[in-house]
């Protein structure tokens, strides 16, 4: 039981870190390594100054939806972890972690919705950027998709996890 508890805690922290990176880093769409776009900025690498020059992304309804859903996903997962820690020390023997699991499942569903919206509407989201055929999805986009099954899995584990003393 102790190994399961350590596993689910580690899984939760890993998915939380992955969600945070996917939300905040600058690589949801890339063009040839010198230009990329994320949920907040469009950045271009300047060879002369050897630094990234970033401008705010053009605000579209689809981009706002992805931004909000990813932030909500991080919030749900963070609340879930804090509730789990609270329940771990206050819940009576034999109790189930329903609320923690529910928060994790909601975090997974909101991350799924955000990644799906970005997948289906990236042309509208990146409308004023360079030609999309010369670019590809970046690692933050992939991290967002990887988070989805991990969040749902940890949510199911939390729902079935019973506190023992």
From TrEMBL:
TM helices/strands, residue ranges: 62-84, 96-116, 136-161
The keyword GTP-binding appears for this protein: no
Keywords linked to the UniProt accession: Membrane, Signal, Transmembrane, Transmembrane helix
Main localization of the protein described in the UniProt heading: membrane
One cellular-component annotation, GO: plasma membrane
Signal peptide: 1-19
Intracellular or extracellular location(s): Membrane
Membrane topology, from the record: Multi-pass membrane protein
Keyword Ion transport listed: no
Protein family per UniProt: Belongs to the PMP-22/EMP/MP20 family.
Protein name: Epithelial membrane protein 3b (MAM blood group)
Organism from which the protein derives: Notothenia coriiceps (black rockcod)
Lineage, top ranks: Eukaryota, Metazoa, Chordata, Craniata, Vertebrata
